[in-house]
C-alpha cells in the first residue's frame, strides 16, 4: 500500500485505547531521567480466537505475546507524524491464560538539547511524558468480540528501577549505553504464568482525541515501511580469551545448549568475531552468579594499543588483534542470580548494537555463574536485493559485496549515515543510498519515507534540516539540494508524478530561500553564520568547507543552486507547471552567468572556491560542469587540468558521485574508472564495509555514502539506467574500461534487465534480456546507437 493510500484508510475514531503510563505519569523531567516501564495485560482464550493489535509509545516499545517478541517501534517519526504498528498476533494465542506484555523506554528530551545520554538518542523523537498505547479486542473466529484489551485501567505496570542509561562521548548521538541491575528487575514477566498481582494499575492520562481538535496525545499515522527483520545468528569465531579455556568458551557460540562455569570472584574476558560488521540485538544467557558483573564492548575493528578514542584514533588492518585492542564504551549488567539452567537469566540491551567484534568482561560475584550462550539477532530493513554484479576483476566483485553489506547496515527505520556512531538520516547520504537501493530492488518504501521525513523537517523559512528525524535541529544549506535530487531520481526510476506534485510547494519554498540570499552581482551570498557550511570531508578543509568560507560567498552554493533550479524545472515541466519551470530555468541561467563573471579566475583558468580569492579545489570545477557553466570541449579540458593538478584538494568519498557524473558528461571514462583505486585499498585493510573517508583515519568504518559501487557498477559498467520515467524506456550503455567481461541484473518496475558483455580480442559483444514490450536504447562503447524492444534476447557487437 502506498503511503498516501495508507493515510486515506487511517482512521482512529473507533479506537478505544488510551495513553497510559506508570503511577505519577506527569513526572519531574530531569536530564538523564530516562525510564523503562513494563506493562502487562492477561486474558483467557478458549482456542481459535483472533487478535490484531495497534501499538505505539513514547519513546520506544517492544511488545511480547506469551513471551514471544512480536513488534518493536514505533517507527521513527517526529512531532507531527507519530507512527503506530498493526500486528496480527492470533497465531501466538493459546488455550487458557495469555498475556500481552510491553517493554517501553521513555527518553527524556531536555531543552536545550545535550548529547551523550542526558537527553536520549537524537534520531528518536520524544515528548515530555512517557506513554504506551494499544488498541485491540479478542474476537472469535467469526469476528464477534470476546474481550477488549485496549490500554486503560485494566493494564498493570511497574517502573524497571534497575535500568539506567549512562553518557557515552564516543556514541553521544545514540544517547549512551546501559547500566542494568538485574536484581531490581522482575524476571519472566513476559510470560503468562508470571504473578503480576502486586503490580499497580496503569494510569490513563490522555485519550486519542478531543472534540475540539486539540492534540491531547500524539499525532498518529500508520507505519509506512515493513517491520525490520530479526534473525538469530551465531558469532563466526572466538578471537581470544583470558581466564578460561578457549575451547570451553567457543561452545557458547553454538545454538545448542552449553555451559561454562565461572568460579565465584574470578575474572575472565573473551572477544568474539561476527565475521563481518553487522547490527543486532546481543543476548547473553546465564544462571546463578548473583552480583556477577558483565561489561560488553561492541567495536567495529581492532585498533593499535596507542589508539585513543578522545585524543586520536589510529586504524590499520581491521582484523589485527595482535598488539591491538577494541575501542568502545560498555553496556554493564549485574546478574540477579535468578536464572536456572532450565530458565536462564538473559541480558539483552534494549536498542540494537553495531559491531564486528564484541568483548565480554566478567567479574564474578559471591557465587559461581554458569554461562550458557552468547549470540545476537541480526536486524535491519528487509532489503531483498534482486540487483547483481559480477566481472573479470575479482577485486571489484569484493568491493560490490562490501558495498552491499554497508548499505544493509545503514538501513533500519530510516537510511542512516553510520550505524555505530549516529544512526542519523542526512540528506546527502540518503540521496545516494536511495540511488543504490534503486539498482538493487524495486522496493521504494524506505525511500518514500525518507522524502517525507525531510519534507517534515522544513522550517518556516523554507530551509530543510540536513538530518531528520532529529531532536536537535541542524542545517547545512547545500545539503538541501539533495532533497530535490531525491524527487528527481524517484521520478526517474518510478515515474510517480503524484509524489512529485505533493512536494512541489516545499521544493519551490526551498529554492526561494536561496534566491533571497542572492547578491546584486547575482551569485548566492554569504549565508547566516549559525548554519553549517559543509560540502565535503576534504582533509585540508576545516569543518568540511574551504578555508575562505568566512571571507566571502562560497562558489559551490551558487553552482549547486543553479543545478537545483534546473532539476526542479524538469520536475515542474513533468507536472505541467511549464511557466514556473521556465522561470526557474531563467533563474539558473542568470546564476550561471554571474558565476562565470565573478568566480572564474582567468589567471588560474579555474573556478575559485570564493570569488576574488586565490583558493581553489576540484569541487567547483566538477559542479561547474554539472551546472552548465562550462560545456563541451571546454568542460573536458577543465576537468583534465583539474584532476591532473596535484595542488588542488580532491573530492573525498561522498563527493565522488558528483565527480563521476561530471567526468561522464565529458566522456572522461578512463579517469572515472581510476577512482576505484581508493576502494581497492579497503580490501587490504580487511574492511567488510566502506568507511566514512579514504584518507587519514576514518571515525566510522561503515558509512553508506561510500557504497557508490552499487550504483556505478550497475549504471555505468553494466550501463543500465532509465531512459524515460519509470523505466518506460530503458537505456543500456556499458562502459568496459579495464575489464574483459561483466554481467549482472538490474531490477525495474517491469521486470529485471539482465546484461552480459565480454571482449574477445578487440571484438565487444553484448547480450541483453529486457522486460517484454519495453523499448531499449543500446549505446555501444564505440558510440554506435540503435533501438530494440524487450522480450527476446537482444544481441549487439562492435570492434574497439
UniProtKB/TrEMBL annotation:
UniProt domain Bacterial alpha-L-rhamnosidase N-terminal: residue ranges: 52-204
Domain Alpha-L-rhamnosidase C-terminal residue range list: 719-793
Residue ranges of every copy of the Alpha-L-rhamnosidase six-hairpin glycosidase domain listed in the record: 386-610
Listed GO biological process terms: carbohydrate metabolic process
Protein name: Alpha-L-rhamnosidase
Natural source organism: Paenibacillus rhizosphaerae
Lineage, uppermost ranks: Bacteria, Bacillati, Bacillota, Bacilli, Bacillales
Amino acid at each position: 500500500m502506498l503511503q498516501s493510500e495508507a493515510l486515506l484508510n487511517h482512521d482512529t475514531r473507533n479506537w478505544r485505547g488510551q495513553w497510559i503510563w506508570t503511577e505519577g505519569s506527569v513526572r519531574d523531567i530531569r536530564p538523564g531521567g530516562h525510564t523503562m516501564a513494563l506493562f502487562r495485560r492477561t486474558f483467557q482464550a478458549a482456542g481459535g480466537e483472533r487478535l490484531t493489535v495497534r501499538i505505539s509509545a513514547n519513546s520506544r516499545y517492544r511488545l511480547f505475546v506469551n513471551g514471544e517478541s512480536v513488534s518493536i517501534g514505533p517507527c521513527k517519526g517526529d512531532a507531527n507524524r507519530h507512527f503506530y504498528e498493526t500486528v496480527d498476533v492470533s497465531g501466538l494465542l493459546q488455550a487458557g491464560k495469555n498475556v500481552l506484555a510491553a517493554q517501553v523506554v521513555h527518553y527524556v528530551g531536555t531543552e536545550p538539547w545535550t548529547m551523550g545520554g542526558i537527553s536520549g538518542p537524537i534520531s528518536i523523537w520524544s515528548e515530555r511524558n512517557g506513554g504506551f498505547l494499544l488498541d485491540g479486542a479478542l474476537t472469535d473466529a467469526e469476528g464477534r468480540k470476546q474481550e477488549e484489551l485496549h490500554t486503560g485501567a485494566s493494564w498493570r505496570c511497574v517502573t524497571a528501577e534497575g535500568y539506567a542509561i549512562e553518557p557515552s562521548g564516543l556514541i553521544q548521538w545514540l544517547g549512551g549505553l546501559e547500566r542494568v541491575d538485574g536484581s531490581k528487575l522482575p524476571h519472566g514477566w513476559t510470560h503468562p504464568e508470571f504473578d503480576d498481582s502486586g503490580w499497580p494499575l496503569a494510569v490513563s492520562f490522555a485519550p486519542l482525541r478531543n472534540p475540539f481538535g486539540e492534540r491531547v496525545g500524539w499525532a498518529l499515522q500508520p507505519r509506512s515501511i515493513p517491520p525490520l527483520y530479526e534473525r538469530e545468528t551465531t558469532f563466526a569465531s572466538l578471537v581470544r580469551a583470558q581466564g578460561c579455556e578457549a575451547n570451553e568458551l567457543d561452545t557458547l557460540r553454538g545454538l545448542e545448549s552449553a555451559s561454562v562455569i565461572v568460579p565465584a570472584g574470578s575474572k575472565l574476558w573473551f572477544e568474539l568475531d561476527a565475521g563481518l560488521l553487522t547490527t543486532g540485538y546481543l543476548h547473553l544467557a546465564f544462571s546463578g552468579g548473583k552480583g556477577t558483573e558483565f561489561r560488553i564492548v561492541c567495536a567495529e575493528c581492532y585498533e593499535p594499543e596507542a589508539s585513543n578514542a578522545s585524543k586520536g584514533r589510529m586504524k590499520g588492518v581491521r582484523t589485527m588483534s595482535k598488539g591491538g585492542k577494541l575501542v568502545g564504551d560498555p553496556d554493564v549488567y549485574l546478574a540477579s542470580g535468578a536464572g536456572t539452567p532450565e530458565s536462564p537469566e538473559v541480558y539483552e540491551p534494549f536498542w540494537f548494537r553495531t559491531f564486528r567484534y564484541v568483548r565480554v568482561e566478567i567479574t564474578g560475584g559471591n557465587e559461581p555463574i554458569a554461562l550458557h550462550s552468547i549470540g545476537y539477532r541480526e536486524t535491519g530493513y528487509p532489503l531483498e536485493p534482486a540487483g547483481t554484479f559480477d566481472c573479470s576483476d575479482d577485486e571489484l566483485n569484493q568491493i560490490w559485496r562490501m558495498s552491499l553489506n554497508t548499505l544493509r547496515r545503514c538501513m533500519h527505520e530510516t537510511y542512516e549515515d553510520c550505524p555505530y556512531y549516529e544512526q542519523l538520516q542526512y540528506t546527502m547520504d540518503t540521496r545516494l543510498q536511495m540511488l543504490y537501493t534503486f539498482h538493487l530492488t524495486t522496493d521504494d518504501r524506505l525511500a518514500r519515507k525518507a522524502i517525507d521525513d525531510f519534507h517534515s523537517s522544513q522550517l518556516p523559512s523554507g530551509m530543510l534540516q540536513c538530518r531528520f528525524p532529529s531532536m536537535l535541529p541542524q542545517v547545512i544549506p547545500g545539503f538541501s539540494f539533495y532533497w530535490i535530487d531525491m524527487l528527481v531520481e524517484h521520478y526517474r526510476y518510478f515515474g510517480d508524478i503524484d509524489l512529485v506534485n505533493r512536494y512541489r510547494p516545499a521544493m519551490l519554498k526551498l529554492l526561494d530561500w536561496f534566491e533571497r540570499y542572492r547578491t546584486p552581482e547575482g551569485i548566492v551570498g554569504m549565508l547566516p553564520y549559525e548554519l553549517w557550511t559543509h560540502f565535503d570531508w576534504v582533509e585540508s578543509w576545516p569543518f568540511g568547507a574551504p578555508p575562505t568560507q568566512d571571507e566571502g560567498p562560497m562558489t559551490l552554493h551558487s553552482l549547486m543552486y543553479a543545478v537545483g533550479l534546473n532539476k526542479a524545472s524538469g520536475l515542474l515541466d513533468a507536472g505541467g507547471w511549464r511557466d514556473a519551470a521556465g522561470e526557474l530555468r531563467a533563474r539558473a541561467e542568470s546564476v550561471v552567468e554571474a558565476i562565470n563573471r565573478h568566480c572564474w579566475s582567468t589567471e588560474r583558468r579555474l573556478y575559485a572556491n570564493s570569488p576574488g580569492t586565490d583558493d581553489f579545489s576540484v569541487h567547483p570545477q566538477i559542479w561547474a560542469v554539472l551546472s552548465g557553466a562550462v560545456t563541451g570541449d571546454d568542460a573536458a579540458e577543465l576537468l583534465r587540468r583539474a584532476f591532473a593538478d596535484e595542488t588542488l584538494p580532491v573530492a573525498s568519498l561522498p563527493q565522488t558521485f558528483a565527480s563521476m557524473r561530471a567526468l561522464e558528461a565529458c566522456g572522461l571514462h578512463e579517469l572515472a574508472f581510476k577512482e576505484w583505486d581508493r576502494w581497492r585499498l579497503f580490501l587490504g585493510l580487511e574492511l567488510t564495509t566502506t568507511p566514512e573517508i579514504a584518507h587519514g583515519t576514518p571515525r566510522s568504518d561503515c558509512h553508506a555514502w561510500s557504497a557508490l559501487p552499487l550504483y556505478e557498477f550497475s549504471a555505468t559498467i553494466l550501463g543500465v539506467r532509465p531512459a524515460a520515467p519509470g523505466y518506460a524506456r530503458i537505456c543500456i550503455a556499458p562502459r568496459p574500461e579495464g575489464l574483459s567481461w561483466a554481467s549482472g541484473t538490474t531490477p525495474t518496475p517491469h521486470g529485471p534487465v539482465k546484461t552480459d558483455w565480454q571482449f574477445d580480442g578487440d571484438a565487444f559483444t553484448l547480450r541483453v534480456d529486457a522486460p517484454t514490450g519495453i523499448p531499449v536504447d543500446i549505446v555501444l562503447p564505440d558510440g554506435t546507437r540503435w533501438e530494440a524492444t524487450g522480450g527476446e534476447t537482444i544481441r549487439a557487437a562492435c570492434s574497439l
